[in-house]
Amino acid sequence: MSNPAGLALEGGDPREPGHAITRAQDPVERQMIHAIHDPSVAFEEYIYYGAITRAEEKVANERYVAAAGPKTWKSVLKERFSKGQRDQPAIDSPVETGSTGEKAGSDNEKTVVPGNGNRTLGGVTDSEWKNASRAVRTAGWTSAFYLITTDILGPFSVPWAFAQMGYGPGIALYTVFGGLAMYSGFQLWKVFMYMDSDKYPMKSYADCFFRVYGTWARHAVNILQAVQLLFTVSILILSNGQSISQISKRSICFIACLIIFMAAGMLVGQIRTLQRFGWLANFAIWVNVLILFICMGVVANSPPNYATVQASYGDAFGPGPIHRYAGTPPNGAATGGDGFTGSLNGLNQAVYSYGGAMLFISFLSEMRHPWDFWKGILCADIFIYICYLFFGLFVYSYQGQYAYNPVMQGLSPYNWQTATNIMNIVTGLIAACLYGNIGIKVAYVEVFQEIFNAPPLTSKGGKILWAALVPAYWALAWVVCAAIPQFSYISGLVGAVCILQFTYTFPAILAFGFQIQKDAMTSEEVFDPETKRYNYVDRGMKRWVRGFMVKWHLNTFNFIYFLGALTTAALGIYSSALGLKSAFGGASVATSFGCATPV
Fold first, then answer.
1. Reported pTM
2. What whole-number distance in Å separates Cα of residue 377 and Cα of residue 142?
3. What tens digit of pLDDT does each residue of 274-332 get?
4. Residue 407: DSSP 8-state
5. Could you tell me which of 488, 497, 397 has the C-alpha nearest to residue 170?
6. Are 273 and 7 in contact (CB under 8 A)?
7. Residue 571 burial by CB count (10 A; 0-12/13-18/19+): exposed, middle or buried?
8. In sequence order, which ranges of 2-108 are alpha helices (DSSP H)?
């Protein structure tokens, strides 16, 4: 995930060691990696160069739109299936000079500063550096919409979540968490717009924290990010292994079902570019929507899959009358646990459903005009929220406490169950490869390239190393899901430990630190690009207190939001741990590395 956009090109990449603008012994890509993680670069320098880049992007986008002409079906299809190679507008045209103070940010696009194309950066000119950075920025806001929706949309756990919480609490929590997820996304977008630039491109979620809090924060975020991506792939292997088991009518050992999906992931995972996933992501969205409509039609005309629910949650949930509740279900009436514990497990699924903010910076780094990202995230979040509420309430109304996670495995007619399982396998494979693609890149760029000086992924050596890392990554993910074959509880645990942090906790504390430091900048302070010095009027705690008071109400809200997210995470971890303890205590027939299937 740290450098996905840079892998969207095939051939003609200006960061190739043999490319005309690249020094053979030191590719621009490698210099760029070290530059964007240089601890000597001050917060205010990122702001300074961010203002320049946003102004140049505004001019470049106007030229691009004018040159592209009106949209037609032919142009849209051509763009969707292109390899991402496009003619970029000139980037070295002179621009106006403006302030370098606090208003030199994304909300003041007319404030620009001239660049000097003759200056060199480690042997590479500004023009060459910009070409290397801009070459990877080709996506529009519609591509961002497709990728965000594919990344976040996961409605198949929503009915189960409503079965744990009831109508009222379920609607309230999905609404609140949906709104907060959108707020977090806008905070990440804001930080990117101010701190990303051609000189210091922002490539990953961890880059935000590096520029606001320092190196320790970047490493902490990268470690947790790697854990989440690995567990996300594990969860998808488990879910689709269950689908394969149902399709085979439990005639295949469950471990073998997991291996089948893992092997498919190893093959498809050899795709190295996010650009190649663009049209697949679009396809996956509409397949998921089709699954929703099929499931709604089936649950309205057939009973729940009692056998599957009983196999997963015990004899207490064998065949019987269907119950629905306006509030929290009474003890013994929810598969996720009794009372508050059951509601927390439902809440964990709500958190898991809105997870995906971790990839937003990667998507932004590929956009030609990142200012338009707000359109993609707004449309995606509204679309996702409507899908969640409508689908969750509809299925819960028909299946009640027998709602299953994932929902297609709770359908009783075998033919419809098989059809939706096959479609789920296809979309699950796309999603798993997307997460695996990002996860391997996190490890490759942040560890192999930065520490061990591994070759760029666009080189022959990098491609060979990639081919070896993919099967190793998927094998590790398989070990995790085979050891813990409890889908609802393990997904809830991952939601509480990882996804909640990236979607709610981290954006809150990031916005808190960013806003204070930005507001501490004054018109009296000026950054000198020649000496790389910024004349601070004060430093230390005094500066932070002064910055906090500029927008104390917003900073207070962000800090309370941060503490609330941490509390929710702790409660979620507790409830998931209790659920796993119950499942391994005999409530479920599935065991670690066993042949018995949980469905």
1. 0.78
2. 10
3. 555 666 767 877 888 899 899 999 999 999 999 888 888 888 888 889 899 998 898 88
4. G
5. 397
6. yes
7. middle
8. 28-36, 43-68, 73-80
